[in-house]
Design goal:
By secondary structure, the chain is mainly alpha-helical. The protein has one domain. The chain contains 8 helices and 4 strands; from the N terminus they run H-H-H-H-E-E-E-H-H-E-H-H. Strands 1-4 form a two-stranded antiparallel sheet. Strands 2-3 form a two-stranded antiparallel sheet. Strand 2 and strand 3 form a beta hairpin. Helix 4 packs across helix 5 and helix 6 packs across helix 7 (about 180-205). The longest helix has 30 residues, at about 105-135. The protein is globular and about 55 Å long. The chain starts with a helix and ends with a helix. About 30% of the residues are buried.
Length: about 230
């Protein structure tokens, strides 16, 4: 087993350990509040694991990281303080230090979701293109780009749809009248598409198995909580 595979397996083990422990702690122990209060540690750790497992840590990767963080954070600042993008909502103090009423960790969360959705879609796309090419069918670059953005945006939208009710129940943020407006999902889709276009431009030939696994782990994490919380 080479070093790259060892790192991937270790990262996967850590991600599983933290998310399974979080599920058990929230659903079955008296320390539910402790696990919720330390969510930001889990997000920071997952971002660090992405950094460690990313195959080529060149300037494009760090440009995307900073862009996803800053754009995601700026969108949230505009959304929270105006209600124009997602509807009326506000963040609690659970997720840590806030700037302009938005926790800084939210920028990290945008990076994780977009990066993982992009990697999942690229992995699926590579599989499908290989099958299509075997049949002698050519696909132009523009079609591949449009297909990628649409597929990855819907994937990130699915993640948000699963996550939103859980996040409200855990107290990360609260919606006005406890209703998640349809506008939230429309804006999420548009913002995701823009960031995924940037992801594609900067990370087109990269593949990170851990990111694929992490997306599935986090999706299942929120799905279980949505079902049983």
């Amino acid at each position: 087993m080479n070093k790259k595979n060892t790192i991937q397996i270790l990262a996967l083990f850590i991600a599983l350990l933290f998310h399974i422990s979080g599920l058990a702690g929230i659903l079955f122990t008296q320390y539910k509040d402790w696990f919720i209060q330390n969510t930001y540690i889990n997000l920071l750790l997952m971002a660090a694991l992405i950094l460690v497992t990313h195959p080529s840590k060149n300037k494009n990767f760090f440009i995307f990281f900073m862009a996803a963080f800053l754009i995601g954070f700026a969108i949230e600042v505009l959304g929270v303080n105006t209600g124009l993008l997602f509807g009326r909502y506000n963040y609690s103090d659970i997720l840590g230090i806030k700037v302009f009423n938005v926790p800084l960790i939210i920028g990290i969360n945008w990076f994780i979701i977009i990066y993982c959705a992009g990697m999942v879609t690229q992995a699926y796309e590579n599989f499908m293109i290989k099958k299509i090419n075997e049949q002698g069918i050519a696909i132009n670059k523009r079609m591949k780009l449009v297909s990628f953005i649409i597929d990855a945006s819907f994937l990130s939208l699915l993640f948000d749809w699963v996550m939103e009710p859980v996040a409200s129940k855990l107290g990360y943020w609260q919606w006005q009248n406890d209703e998640i407006p349809f506008l939230n999902y429309v804006s999420w889709m548009i913002a995701s598409a823009l960031l995924l276009w940037l992801f594609r431009k900067l990370n087109q030939n990269s593949h990170n198995k851990f990111a694929v696994h992490l997306f599935i782990i986090q999706l299942l994490f929120f799905l279980v909580l949505r079902t049983f919380l």
